[in-house]
Amino acid sequence: MTSLVLLLDPIAADAQPDDVELAASLTFVPPEEPILSAFDAGAGRGDGIFETLGANDGRARGVEAHLDRLAASAVKLDLPMPHLGQWRAGIAAILEALPADGQASIRLVLTRGTDPSGPPTCWLTGTTVPDRVPERTTGIRVVTLSRGYVNDVGESSPWLLVGAKTLSYALNMAALREARRRGADDAVFTSTDGFALEGPTSSLLVRQGNTIVTPAIQHGILAGTTQADLFDFLASEGFACEYRTVEASELLRSDAVWLVSSVRLAAPVTAVDGTAVATDLDLTARMNAALLA
Ligand code: PLP
Asked: Does pTM surpass 0.85?
């Protein structure tokens, strides 16, 4: 496995660095070398944001969508606006240093640093991942877990940061452990008013006949980059693609359900709360092939 760590010396969002300045702001460090202060807000409070991109054969998917979402998360957390050109150059440097063939995961991390009025702490990692991801074909069993909020909490309580990709993922990881305790592989968060939202690390897609549905993001979920890429692909295949509220009970009476994300890609859901649900393995294979193309 290859593991890379690239530190960014942050450049102001409105600066116009030349290529030499950009290159000088990026430093590879050995992966075993410590890079954080014990007083960093990212480590002590989970106060920061991140992105995870999937890469295949030297190309990263959805770079601009991930950079836009990083910037949107920075706005939601009142963090300094990232210089997207610098992060773009960081992604390119990681891709260059990763093996030319095979799949990889690239993570961008920006924390509030050690001093709220000082610079953020910024780094990227690059890690190779196995080419064979069994969940893409064998599927996953999910349980529905309440997130404890009503559906429109993103609009009514923006300080809960439900649509931002923050470093505070302890509850997402706890939901995955709860799913495993219940004999499943993954979870679908639901709202207290009965709607299906997203997975702890993935977006939800549902097929009903010729229509593919995903929960609308204004209801306090993360805008998925994989879901957006898949909507482009599925629309080109003749499906109608819709953003709307999805009742949790719809999962049991749909023609197929998937959890989709940047590295695992489309994982077909085979059971919801212990009840088998319909799958569409042919469409799943085409979706994953399109994402890897
Ligand atoms: N929703 C949540 C909560 C996530 O953490 C993720 C990814 O980690 C997603 C959705 C899927 O986003 P993407 O397709 O951009 O990986």
From this structure: yes
